[in-house]
Design a protein that fits this description.
The chain contains one helix and eleven strands, in the order E-E-E-E-E-E-E-E-E-E-E-H. It is mainly beta. The longest helix is centred in the last third of the chain and has 25 residues.
């Protein structure tokens, strides 16, 4: 921003140089050349700027849907994608969750060593609704927290259904009741 700067003979003046990196600039070393010129005289200084970058994680599913289905009392696997759209790798990413009371959620793996910049890693969340849960929709929050950056989270809507075994048992009981009534009517007839 300085166009010219008067400097008296046998004197010196200090200036500050500020360099701003582009938002999507990859991590690495970048040379910067600083030049000063006065008439026929010139001076230059070469410095190197170290850009460290920053990870930018997102947590989603392979198809992008933030919903799933689970059955009461059974474990359901939910495939997740940890995507790093930042300019530095995300290291030591720990996975955690906030779930309804009585639910259990485990991750495979529980901790991801590294998600390189511009890449993604697949993990699996294993959900098990409470044995006494009611059928319906529930919200589960899943989080990914790298060691050197802020965490990211996503809310998933999980539709919980009862086991088809109970439905089959109910149909069997109704069939038995109908057959029993039919046998009684057939045996004793209408009186």
């Amino acid at each position: 921003e300085v166009g010219n700067l008067p400097v008296e003979a046998n004197r010196s003046k200090s200036i500050s140089v500020e360099a701003k990196a582009y938002v999507d600039l990859a991590a690495g070393s970048y040379p910067i050349s600083i030049q000063a010129q006065s008439g026929q005289l010139s001076a230059s200084l070469d410095v190197t700027a170290e850009v460290t970058g920053q990870p930018q994680l997102s947590l989603t599913t392979p198809d992008g849907r933030l919903s799933g289905k689970a059955t009461i009392g059974q474990e359901t696997a939910l495939k997740l994608v940890l995507r790093n759209t930042g300019t530095a790798p995300a290291r030591a990413v720990e996975l955690s969750s906030t779930e309804p009371s009585g639910w259990t959620i485990t991750f495979e793996p529980k901790k991801v060593d590294e998600v390189p910049a511009g890449q993604q890693v697949e993990v699996t969340a294993k959900l098990r609704p409470a044995d006494k849960a009611l059928s319906g929709d529930y919200v589960v929050t899943l989080r990914a927290r790298p060691a050197d950056s802020s965490s990211t989270s996503a809310d998933f809507r999980i539709t919980v259904t009862t086991s088809t075994l109970w439905g089959l048992a109910g149909v069997a009981l109704i069939a038995i009741a109908v057959l029993s009534v039919a046998m009684v009517v057939a045996r004793f007839g209408r009186r």
